[in-house]
Amino acid sequence: MSAYEDDKMSEDTTSMSNSDDEKTVCGDQSDGGIFESSSTETLDEISIVDISINILNDEGIDMAAEFPSSSTVEEILKTVENQSFDDYDLEYNGQILPRNKALCDIGINKNDNVKVVERKTKIFVKDDRNGYKNAVDIQLSATVKDLKEKLRNSYQNTEQNLRITYNGSELADSKTLRSYNIQKNSELVTTSRCYGG
């Protein structure tokens, strides 16, 4: 065999070895992924393994579903929440899961529970009495009453007759922030309710 043929064979072997390395695991096993992968397994072989997980909402189990182990959190959210997936996160063992991570990277096992939780949105609430503006992280499914409670707890606002207005209209305690089309960075105003003349 000539020196040229020896070099060519060595290049081909290195190329094959690198190609196999790129496909050996689903994610970084040092992160505690659930699949122990031998060097002969390819990403395609791992991807066909389905994991059955329980998707929870606030009321309990909403659905049980099977996903390929290579599915990312974002792909699962798109399946579960359709068009509104940007408003939600997946929570596992009390932690919000990164959207770009695959199930096999996170360590989710068969029949584990993951919870769909609404993302918090930053809004601003201005106190009409002193002009102070506070940033508040809150879910848009929260009611106006929930927001008032949060303001009392977080900012020591002891005012019992608190009114909240948005675009000049007073907000009803029983309605959600979303029902008033409140969005990220919206500014609400708190005032004290006055009685009598």
Briefly, what is this?
The chain has 197 residues and is of the alpha+beta class. It has two domains: 77 residues, Ubiquitin-like (UB roll) (Roll), CATH 3.10.20; 72 residues, Roll (Ubiquitin-like (UB roll)), CATH 3.10.20.90. 25% of the residues lie in helices and 28% in strands.
Describe the structure.
The chain has helices spanning 3-22, 43-47, 73-81, 103-106, 144-154; strands at 50-57, 60-68, 88-92, 95-96, 113-118, 121-127, 133-138, 162-166, 169-170, 187-192. The chain is elongated. The model is unreliable at 8-25 and 27-48 (pLDDT under 50). Helices cover 25% and strands 28% of the residues. The protein is of the alpha+beta class and 197 residues long. The chain has 2 domains: 42-118, Ubiquitin-like (UB roll), CATH 3.10.20.90; 121-192, Phosphatidylinositol 3-kinase Catalytic Subunit, Chain A, domain 1 (Ubiquitin-like (UB roll), Roll), CATH 3.10.20.90.
- The CATH topology of the largest domain comes to Ubiquitin-like (UB roll)
Strand order of the largest sheet: 2-1-5-3-4
CATH class identity of the largest domain: Alpha Beta
| Total DSSP helices | 5
List the helices and strands and how they pair.
Layout: H1 3-22, H2 43-47, E1 50-57, E2 60-68, H3 73-81, E3 88-92, E4 95-96, H4 103-106, E5 113-118, E6 121-127, E7 133-138, H5 144-154, E8 162-166, E9 169-170, E10 187-192
